[in-house]
Amino acid sequence: MKLFTTLFSVFFLTFLLSVTSTFGQEVKQISPIRAKLMARNGTMMIDVRERDEVKEVAYDVDGIVNIPLSEIEARMNEIPKDVDVILACRSGNRSAQAASILAKNGYTKLYNMEGGMLAWQEKKLGVIIEGKKAPKKACCANPNSKNCNPDGTCKKGAKGCAKGKKCCSKGAKGCSKSKAAAAPAK
Question: I need a labelling partner for 139 at 20 to 30 A (CA). Which of 97, 113, 146, 159 fits?
Answer without folding.
Answer: 113
